[in-house]
Amino acid sequence: MADIDLVDGDARVEPPAPSGRIRWISAGVGLFLVAFIALLALGPDDRLDPDDGGELLGQRVPEIAAPTLDGGSYDIDDAGGRWVVVNFFATWCVGCINEHPELVELDQWARDTGQAEIVAVVFNDPPEAVAAFFDENGGGWPVVNDPAVPVAFRVSQIPETFLVSPSGQIVQHIQGEVTAEVLIDAMTGEQ
Amino acid sequence: MNAILGFGFVALGLSASVFGAAGGAYALLTGRTRLLATVRQWVWLVVVASIGGFVVMEVALFQRDYSLAYVSQVGSDFTPPLYNAAALWSALEGSILLWTLVLGLYLTAMLVRFREQRHDPLFGWALVVMLTVTAFFFGLMVGPANPFLTVEVPPGFTGPGPNPLLQNHILVAFHPPMLYLGYVGFTVPFAFAVGALITGRLGEGWLTATRRWTVAAWGFLTAGIILGAWWSYEVLGWGGFWAWDPVENASLLPWLTGTAYIHSVMVQERRGMLRVWNLSLLCATFALTILGTFLTRSGVVASVHAFADGAVGPWLLVFFAVISAVSVGLIAWRGDQLSSPGAIDNPVSREGSFLANNLAFGALAFVVLLGTVYPLLAEAWDGTRLTIGRPYFDSLGRPIALTLLFLMAAAPLLPWRKASTEVLSVRLFWPAIAGVATMAAALVIGARGFWAVATFGLSAFAGAAALRVIVLAVRRQRWRGFVGRTNGGMIVHLGVVLLAMGVAASEIYKSDRTVLVDVGDRVVVEGFELTYLEPGADISDRRLRTFARIQIDDGAIREPAITTYRQVGVVVPTPAVRSTITEDVFLVLDQLPSREADAIRLRVIVRPMTSWIWTGGLLMAIGTALALVPTRRERRRDPARAVTDGSDDSARTAADAGETPASQEPEQEPEPVGG
Fold it and tell me: Do A48 and B300 touch (CB under 8 A)?
C-alpha cells in the first residue's frame, strides 16, 4: 500500500477500552498453552531423554559384556589395543545376509593380522536361528545376545556396524551393508 | 586449532548476547541513554561471532579437519565442494551454526537500516529481544549441541560424508538457507512487536517499519518450502513432493500464520483494527518456528529429516514456553490499549474478505498443527500410538484451500468499507467469465472430479482478478504497475494460482505403474512409449551408480539409477524425471538390475502439470521481490523513520484515520475503467 499512516495510532480518539475481555482471552490462551507445553514435556520419557538418539561417533564405546551364544563370554574391554568391529544383525535382515561374506573375509584378515576382532550382536532374533545361520554361512566370531547392547548403541535399523579404535573410541558408524574393504582400509589407513 | 577458534566464536556470541541484552534492558528500564548506545557494540560482536563460527566450520570441512567430531560425522575426502559446503547444515549442530549466521545477518541489516533510531526505546527493546534469541542459540552450541567438540580418528580416516540424500542434488545447497532466512526473518517483526508492547507505542508505526522485513521473511520461507518440496520430488524416490511429514508441516505452520498476518496487517494499517489479532499472529508465527524446530530437532516425531538429537529438545521446549508466556503476558498487560477503533461496516468489503481469509488460514493452521502434534499428545495422555496421514490432511485441507482460492479471487475486486452492486458487477465480469470458461475447458479435455475442476475454475477466477489489477496498474503507471506491495502481491497471487492448479492436477490425475522390461523392450505407459536401451554403471571413490538408460517417446533419454554411497554403504534410488509443461514422467528403479536376469523393475509415475508448481513458486518469489520495491510515495516518506516519527503526541485525528481517498492512492484502488 503506497499511502501509509506513519503516525502511531494512539492519538486517535478511541472508545473506552473493553480491557477485561482481552485479559480473559489471554488467560484462556495462556492456560491452553500451559496444558499444551506440559503434555509435550511430559511425553514419553524415552523420547525426550537427553541421552536418547544422539550420535555415538567419537565417544567412548558403550559396555559390551555378555555371554556368547556358544556358551562363553565376551567383554569388549578385553580387546586390549586391537580394533573391534561391532556388527548388529539378524537372520531375517536381507542386508545382513548380503554382508555376511564380507564379514567372513574381514574375520580372516583380522585373524591373519591380529589387529582386529569382530563381535556380532543379535538384534531381535531367537538363538536357534542365529546358530543355524552361522552353521550354514560360516563365521567364527563371538555372537552376543543381550538386548541392552543395541539400546546402548542406539541401533534402529540393521545392519549397523560400529568401528571401535584400539583406544576404545567409536570412529565409524555404518548404517547399511559393510564391505571388508572399507573397514580394512579404515583400520590400516589406506584409501 | 579450528576447534579452539570455533568454540571461541561461539562463546563470544553467547557472552556478547547476554551482556548486550542485559545491559540494554537495564539501560531501557533506568533510562540511561549512554548505556543504551553501547548495545550496538555488543550487537556487532554477536555479528562477528555468528559469521566467525560459520566460517571456521566451513574451513574445517574443506580442510577435512577430522579432529572435529562434526567434520568426522558429515565430512569426507570424496565429497564434491558444493555438497561439502552444504554438509555444514546436514546435521544438528551445524544447522544451529547456520541459524546463528542468519540471525547475525539480520542483526547487521537492522543496525544499518535503523541507524538513526539508535536512541529509540522501541528499537532498543527490539535489539534486546534479538540478542535474547541469539543468546539462546549460542547457548545451545555452548551446551547440548556443541559443533566444535574434538575427536580422535585413526590415521587414514576418510570420513563418511553427509547423509547420501544430502549429497546428490544441487537443491540441498539452497533449500535450507532459504528456509532459515524465512524462519529467522520472522524474529525481526516479533522483536519489534515485543518492543511496541513494552513501550506501549502500539500504533501503526512499528508495523510500517517492519512491513518489508515481514514480507521478505515470508518470501524466503515460501521459496524455502517450495525448494524443499522440489528437492523431495527430485531426490526421494517415492514420487511425490509433499508427504505431510512433521518437518514439512513444521515449515508450513509459520507460513500459514505469516500469510494471514501479511493480509490482516493491511486492515490495521488502513483502519486501525485487529491490533490484538495482528500481534498474536506475529507472536504465533515466531513461536511456531521454534515449536517446529522443537518437533523436528528433538526426536519426538519420526521424520525423514529429523536430526533426532534429543539433547536440544527440552531447551527448545523451554524456549517455546518462554516465548508463549512473554507474548500472552504482554498482550494481556497492554490489553486496555489494544482495543480497536471502529468495526467492520460490511462483510462484503476488502476488510471483510481479509477477515474471512484470516479465519481460513487460522483454521488451516489449526488443522495442520493438530494433525502434527495429536499423535504426540495422545501418546503423552494415555500411551496410545497412532499416526495421522494424508487422508486427514486432504479431507480437511481441501475445502479450506478452495475457500482460500475463492477469497483470493474476490478480495482484490472488493473495495474497502462497502461494495456496491454496480461496482461489483463490473469488476466481477471478466474474472467470472475466465473461471467458468476454464472449468468448461477442463471438462472438455477430460478433467473429472469435483476437487480438480473446482480448483481449476477458482484458480482461473483468482488469476483473472489478479491480472485485472496488474493490467490496470500497468496502463496507468507503465513499469511501475509491476512493483509495490499491491502489484507485487497480485503477481504472488498469480504464482499461487499456477501452484494450486499444478498441485491439483499432479495429485489427482497421477498414475503410478510398475513394469518389468528387458533390454530393447518397449512399453507404453499412459500414452508414453518407454524403451529400455541398456544398463550402465559408473564408479567413483564416492559412489557406485547403477543406472538404466530409458528413452521416452524416441526423444529424451533419462537414467533412473540406484546409487551406493561407498563411505557409508547406503543404497538410495535416484529417480529421473522428464518434465514438460503438460506432464512429468517420473522414473524410479525398484531394484538393482540383477546379475541373472536382464529385466528391470521400473516404476513409472505420470503426473500432469507438475512443472506448474515450481513455476508458480518462482512467480511467488518474483512477486515478493517486486512487492519490496518502494513505490514513489513510499520513497518520499521513509518508513524506517516511522518508529520515532510516529511519536505518541501525533496530531492525527480519527477523522482522517480511516479512509484515504482513492485518488491519493491510484494503484491501490483502480477505477474500473477497463472492466
Answer: yes
